[in-house]
């Protein structure tokens, strides 16, 4: 019943997480009836981000420059590295405050069942960065899930072999949850209470 | 903490109804991490729809052609006109089935407090269409809200002056609700139980 351009818009909106047929219809009609400027701005932003955003050379997080702001910041301690699964985890730590080291973003976690091995989450690059920056402590802040724990342990073993200290954030992070939904205070506490993973 | 292109994408996503800062971040990262093809398809669909979708010459619904499929369909009875507030209401009636007449889409309702008068919702065009197509019955299917009722009554008075029968959908539509969320059976029932508004 809707015309082809409207139908295509409704179907395309389904690529957004949490958007089903009902809300894609509501979104499409809202934009066309009331906010075409917003639709055009979003179209431009989507195109530019999808084509322009790459990975930071050092930490692998999403960004359009060669290196992200944090890696490019001379004031951040490069001998301390916090390993997280997602770019939003970096944001969560930065918002919690109190951490002055750098990050490494795996963009996922080990998942043998899905065929995701060390190479797919940048472990080689991580170990190279550790050597290059003479990192003295790697804080493993993967999610407190089965896969996150397994990933942390895998990295800890690799670091132990290279005589680099690996710690795991500990207190306060609820088990089975996603790191990015944890409040800042809890995260700061977990960071302060970190312990060596392989002793 | 996010780079400019990612920030702009997150902000642009806020034009979508029901999308706050939390979900816009989740959506932006999801697209960039896992579905750039979907992002580019959506960018294209948004641009094309925002620039290409206009209004049907007859019923005023959203469509990119001169006339929408229903108005262009020779088999639809043009002497029966169902007046609705939104394009999604047309969809609701079509999905309910059983109606073979045409529609007129106000794209809103009268709202003096917001400065929305008869001209803003196409009443002149509606009355012209009624004359042009020799419409014998206008079914007023505006939403069962205060504004929807007032709009229906305003149109009914105008039609009465022109000796055109105006009916209002009646039974089964819950008061205070939005028409587009009513199930097909209820809508079909309400349509069948319509009555003259100004007697
Ligand atoms: Zn970086
Ligand atoms: Zn039409």
Automatic annotation (TrEMBL), chains A, B:
Transmembrane segments: none annotated. Residues 79-174 form the Toprim domain. Pfam families: RecR_C, RecR_HhH, Toprim_4. The keyword DNA damage applies. Keywords: DNA damage, DNA recombination, DNA repair, Metal-binding, Zinc, Zinc-finger. A zinc finger (C4-type) spans 56-71. InterPro entries: DNA_Rcmb_RecR, Rcmb_RecR, Rcmb_RecR_Znf, TOPRIM_dom, TOPRIM_RecR. One of its GO terms (molecular function) is zinc ion binding. The keyword Metal-binding applies. It comes from the Bacteria. One of its GO terms (biological process) is DNA repair. CDD domains: TOPRIM_recR. PANTHER family: RECOMBINATION PROTEIN RECR (PTHR30446). Belongs to the RecR family. May play a role in DNA repair. It seems to be involved in an RecBC-independent recombinational process of DNA repair. It may act with RecF and RecO. This is Recombination protein RecR. The gene is recR.
